[in-house]
Amino acid sequence: KSVELVKGGFPARYGGRLSSVIDINMRDGNKESYHVEGGVGLISSNVMVEGPIVKNKSSFMISGRTTYLDLFLVPIMKIATKGSTAGYYFFDLNGKFNYNFGTKDRLFASTYFGRDKFHLTESWRDEGDREKFAVGLFWQNATATARWNHVFTNKIFSNLSAIFSDYKMNTYSDYEYRYHDDGQTENSRFNSDFNSGIRDYTLKYDVSFNPNASHKLLSGVAITYHEARPNAYVVKADTSTM
Asked: How far apart are CA 213 and CA 22, in angstroms?
């Protein structure tokens, strides 16, 4: 519906942010009729569906986007560099629901989930000897929000919001080789894995007062519970000779 970029000096209602802020408002969904929109590109496509649940009272909106770059990149890598493959993909999903309880109360529920991943694999073989290396990186984020909007007067309204977000990231690598020398076989494997994430639970209440078209007064309170989930960097090595 709208996007606003605040590069610095952002208002207190974005409390806890260290840098710039992107304020995104999602569309509510059409309450009168169903609509489908979409687009197909060379490396990605998207689709959006919206419509009424109860006509003129509640509606929904669902959208999704994904890439199929892997379908082209992996075969090209195999041809261009024998034994090597690489790929990248992403997808994201958005959903929103709203319901009118009357002229003064509305309920909104929205959710988002997105994931990105990059991976690279290289392998080499020569008779009984072989070597393989793989590395990858992925990150994802999931959010859910429930918001109750109440209108006190034509100049004062409030929002009560319950917000959940869950961010995860992972990096990994795996190296394995097998060599024959002087009748002996040496097998070695080395792998590493790192996971990290943070989960937030937020409860927020704010009131907006619009005395006239030129002025707006905002006030509110919010509490957030941060659940940090750091993970030690795990490294494993195994070598054997037969």
From this structure: 24
Contact 46, 38 (CB under 8 A): yes
CA neighbours closer than 13 Å in the CB half-sphere of residue 153: 5
Q: Give the model confidence (pLDDT) of 1-17 as tens digits.
A: 889 998 877 788 887 77
- Secondary structure (3-state) at 14: helix
Cα of 139 vs its chain's centroid, Å:
7
Query: How far is CA 8 from each of CA 1, 5, 50, rounded to the nearest angstrom?
Result: 23, 9, 35
Residue corresponding to tokens 């806890």 = 16
On whether the pTM is more than 0.85, the answer is: no
184-212/156-181 β-pairing = antiparallel
Query: Smallest Cα–Cα separation from 145: which of 98, 198, 92?
Result: 98
CA 235 to chain centre: 27
Q: What is the pLDDT of residues 107-165, one digit of tens each?
A: 999 999 999 999 888 887 777 678 888 999 999 999 999 999 999 998 999 999 999 99
Q: pLDDT at residue 49 above 80?
A: yes
DSSP string, 55-104: TTTEEEEEEEEEE-HHHHHHHHHHHHSTTEEEEEEEEEEEEEEEEE-SSS
- CA-CA distance, 177 to 130, in Å (whole number)? 6
The residue with greater pLDDT, 103 or 201, is 201
- The SS3 of residue 182 is coil
